[in-house]
Amino acid sequence: MMLRKRSLLSQVSKADYKGCNAASPIAAYTSGNDSITLKRRGHHFFICGVPGHCSAGQKKVDVRIAKLTASSAAPSFSPAASPLPATSSGSNSSSGGAVSNPAAAPRPSGANTATPTVVALALALLYPVFSGGSLR
Protein backbone atom coordinates (compact mmCIF):
# COMPACT_ATOMS: atom_id res chain seq x y z
CA MET A 1 0.00 0.00 0.00
CA MET A 2 1.49 3.30 -0.99
CA LEU A 3 0.44 6.41 0.91
CA ARG A 4 1.63 9.98 0.60
CA LYS A 5 4.70 10.66 2.72
CA ARG A 6 2.78 13.23 4.77
CA SER A 7 0.03 10.71 5.55
CA LEU A 8 -0.39 9.32 9.03
CA LEU A 9 -2.21 6.07 9.68
CA SER A 10 -2.72 5.44 13.40
CA GLN A 11 -3.62 2.17 15.07
CA VAL A 12 -5.61 3.10 18.16
CA SER A 13 -7.59 1.59 21.05
CA LYS A 14 -11.34 1.03 20.75
CA ALA A 15 -12.04 4.08 22.93
CA ASP A 16 -9.74 6.28 20.82
CA TYR A 17 -11.32 4.85 17.65
CA LYS A 18 -14.80 5.77 18.84
CA GLY A 19 -13.63 9.25 19.87
CA CYS A 20 -11.42 9.89 16.80
CA ASN A 21 -8.47 10.44 19.13
CA ALA A 22 -5.05 9.83 17.58
CA ALA A 23 -3.08 11.57 20.36
CA SER A 24 -1.65 8.35 21.82
CA PRO A 25 -1.70 5.67 19.10
CA ILE A 26 -0.69 2.05 19.64
CA ALA A 27 1.32 2.43 16.42
CA ALA A 28 1.76 5.12 13.78
CA TYR A 29 2.59 4.42 10.14
CA THR A 30 4.14 7.30 8.21
CA SER A 31 6.58 5.96 5.59
CA GLY A 32 4.01 5.74 2.83
CA ASN A 33 4.81 2.06 2.28
CA ASP A 34 4.13 0.37 5.61
CA SER A 35 3.47 -3.31 6.26
CA ILE A 36 1.26 -4.07 9.23
CA THR A 37 1.35 -7.48 10.89
CA LEU A 38 -1.53 -8.23 13.23
CA LYS A 39 -0.36 -10.77 15.81
CA ARG A 40 -3.54 -11.35 17.81
CA ARG A 41 -7.18 -12.18 17.19
CA GLY A 42 -9.85 -9.61 17.77
CA HIS A 43 -10.48 -6.07 16.58
CA HIS A 44 -7.74 -3.75 15.37
CA PHE A 45 -8.71 -0.10 14.96
CA PHE A 46 -7.16 2.33 12.46
CA ILE A 47 -7.88 6.02 11.88
CA CYS A 48 -6.26 8.87 10.02
CA GLY A 49 -3.80 10.46 12.45
CA VAL A 50 -3.88 13.88 10.79
CA PRO A 51 -5.66 16.22 13.24
CA GLY A 52 -9.26 16.85 12.21
CA HIS A 53 -9.49 14.24 9.45
CA CYS A 54 -11.27 11.53 11.46
CA SER A 55 -13.74 13.93 13.08
CA ALA A 56 -14.41 15.47 9.65
CA GLY A 57 -15.89 12.13 8.58
CA GLN A 58 -12.97 10.51 6.80
CA LYS A 59 -12.87 6.72 6.92
CA LYS A 60 -12.00 4.75 10.00
CA VAL A 61 -11.43 1.01 9.75
CA ASP A 62 -12.11 -1.76 12.26
CA VAL A 63 -10.30 -4.98 11.25
CA ARG A 64 -11.51 -8.13 13.00
CA ILE A 65 -9.27 -11.19 13.06
CA ALA A 66 -11.40 -14.21 13.92
CA LYS A 67 -10.22 -17.57 15.21
CA LEU A 68 -9.32 -19.56 12.12
CA THR A 69 -10.24 -23.19 11.68
CA ALA A 70 -9.61 -25.50 8.76
CA SER A 71 -13.05 -24.70 7.31
CA SER A 72 -13.19 -20.95 8.01
CA ALA A 73 -12.87 -18.24 5.39
CA ALA A 74 -10.89 -15.02 5.70
CA PRO A 75 -11.76 -12.83 8.72
CA SER A 76 -14.33 -10.11 8.33
CA PHE A 77 -13.85 -6.38 8.44
CA SER A 78 -16.23 -3.46 8.33
CA PRO A 79 -15.57 0.17 7.58
CA ALA A 80 -17.21 2.48 10.07
CA ALA A 81 -20.21 4.44 8.89
CA SER A 82 -18.89 7.88 8.03
CA PRO A 83 -21.20 10.61 6.82
CA LEU A 84 -19.91 12.41 3.77
CA PRO A 85 -19.85 16.21 3.81
CA ALA A 86 -23.08 17.86 2.64
CA THR A 87 -23.13 18.93 -1.01
CA SER A 88 -24.02 22.42 -2.16
CA SER A 89 -27.64 21.31 -2.61
CA GLY A 90 -27.76 20.45 1.08
CA SER A 91 -28.15 16.72 0.67
CA ASN A 92 -26.17 14.47 2.95
CA SER A 93 -25.05 10.98 2.05
CA SER A 94 -23.82 8.31 4.37
CA SER A 95 -22.47 4.87 3.92
CA GLY A 96 -22.09 2.07 6.37
CA GLY A 97 -22.76 -1.52 7.21
CA ALA A 98 -20.58 -4.55 6.90
CA VAL A 99 -18.77 -5.32 3.69
CA SER A 100 -19.08 -8.93 2.61
CA ASN A 101 -15.90 -10.87 2.14
CA PRO A 102 -15.34 -12.34 -1.31
CA ALA A 103 -14.73 -16.07 -1.45
CA ALA A 104 -11.29 -16.83 -0.09
CA ALA A 105 -8.76 -18.85 -2.07
CA PRO A 106 -7.77 -22.12 -0.41
CA ARG A 107 -4.97 -21.74 2.13
CA PRO A 108 -1.86 -23.85 2.00
CA SER A 109 -1.97 -26.53 4.65
CA GLY A 110 -0.88 -25.16 8.03
CA ALA A 111 -0.44 -21.57 6.82
CA ASN A 112 -2.34 -18.56 8.13
CA THR A 113 -2.64 -16.29 5.09
CA ALA A 114 -5.81 -14.45 6.13
CA THR A 115 -4.16 -11.68 8.16
CA PRO A 116 -2.20 -10.07 5.28
CA THR A 117 -5.31 -10.29 3.07
CA VAL A 118 -7.50 -8.50 5.59
CA VAL A 119 -4.91 -5.81 6.28
CA ALA A 120 -4.44 -5.23 2.55
CA LEU A 121 -8.21 -4.90 2.07
CA ALA A 122 -8.57 -2.55 5.02
CA LEU A 123 -5.72 -0.36 3.86
CA ALA A 124 -7.13 -0.34 0.34
CA LEU A 125 -10.28 1.20 1.79
CA LEU A 126 -8.17 3.96 3.33
CA TYR A 127 -6.22 4.67 0.13
CA PRO A 128 -8.62 7.38 -1.17
CA VAL A 129 -8.44 9.14 2.20
CA PHE A 130 -4.65 9.35 2.22
CA SER A 131 -4.12 9.91 -1.50
CA GLY A 132 -6.44 12.90 -1.73
CA GLY A 133 -9.07 11.01 -3.73
CA SER A 134 -12.75 11.46 -3.09
CA LEU A 135 -14.89 9.11 -1.04
CA ARG A 136 -18.10 8.04 -2.71
Automatic annotation (TrEMBL):
Entry's Gene Ontology cellular component terms: plasma membrane
Q: Where is this region: Disordered?
A: 71-111
**Domain Phytocyanin positions:** 1-66
Q: Where are the transmembrane segments?
A: none
MF GO annotations: electron transfer activity
Q: Which Pfam families match?
A: Cu_bind_like (PF02298)
Instruction: List the InterPro entries hit by this protein, alphabetically.
Output: Cupredoxin, Phytocyanin-like, Phytocyanin_dom
Biased region (Low complexity) positions are: 71-106
Gene3D superfamilies hit by this protein = Cupredoxins - blue copper proteins
Which protein, by its recorded name, is this? Phytocyanin domain-containing protein
Organism of this sequence: Musa balbisiana (Banana)
